[in-house]
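=== RUN LOG ===
request id: a7f3
mode: sequence -> structure
chains: 1
length: 407
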Amino acid sequence: MKKPFNEISNLTFSAQLNSWYEISSSIGLKLCKNIETSIISKNLRSLQRGLTGDRKFIASSYLDQQRILQSYLLYYWPISFYEVSALLYELRTRAVLPKIHSVLDLGSGPGSASFAAQIFGAIRASLVDKSKHALAAASAIAAQGKVNGLNLEIIEHCAGIEDFCAPKGESYDLIIAANSINELWPNSPDGILKRRDIILRFLPNLRPEGIIIIVEPSAHYTSIPLLELRDSLLAADLDGISLACVGPCPHSLPCPMLGKEKKPCFSEWKWNLPPLVRELADCAGLDRDSLKASWVALKKHEKQEKDKEALQDNKIVPFGSSGLSGRIVSEPMLNKAGRVRYILCTNGGLRATISALRYDPMAENLGFFGLGRGDLIAADGLEIRGESHFGIVPGSRLEILMRAPRI
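=== RESULT ===
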């Protein structure tokens, strides 16, 4: 039976989302005297090119430029804010999100990730960023939020991630780096190892039940390095303590997308864009119909327990069995034989496909054609169509364990 979408529809939750967005956008509009959409969108195009084109803004204090900070607050701030809200909601749905009170936000900018965490319980956030103006904007948002009954204490740390050391005795329930780690050593041959060491440096500051989340854009040049960083972090061992993956991957084994042909892996969330974001995107010529991000969530784990779980995961879905479970990591694809197929990252750390004939009424009844990127599924009674390829046939069963959230 087809299940409904996992919508973030709780009225209180939605009201908090909208309140923080309205506050951030109002502060963004007040930054510059000229608030014409054409001018803001021109600055937005410059920002977009500096981040994803020639990347001249990478690793600089570009948010200290008032016109750039304004366009960031009005466009990229809500994108990051809603992305982090969606992934935190997904982790809560999967029952792996800890109680969050204290946050360390690395490369925070104006704090979009921390304000998303506030909705999930955060009351205190330490923001680390090179831009004093971005930090000041975050404090201004928090101050206005307090007036509106939304409380988040902001502690500003004006520093680069690579130079920052957490104050002695400080610990955090959530350590998050949203769209910032990719800016560190982007062209260095040992950049992944340097990024790994930066993240591991903060591991002693992570509370026992806490999590580390790294979020990056979905582009190839940011997503694939994140997958490589994920595997490097999971392979690390600090005095018997290692990291385990709690999302979005269904396992802590090496990423199957990093095969002979490295493929990006990202989440996509349906999003009703705020009118101003839509207007700026259209005016700047930017494609923005949904939220997309590559991300990984990690927690501390004793190595012996982690190895035991990995072995159990590997036994869940061995190829040669008619059963399959894992996470959809592609859009539906139609092949020449008229079959709709999805790529699945299995619980056992393998890459597989599951398919059905395009107009198969049984597959339709199972909800197969309504699957989307990020959904968690379990299926059995499948036809084995080749190594790592499975098909829906009479008698197959499909359970949709979790729908990717939509905002």
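=== NOTES ===
The two ends are 23 Å apart (CA to CA).
The first strand starts at residue 6 and ends at 7.
=== END ===
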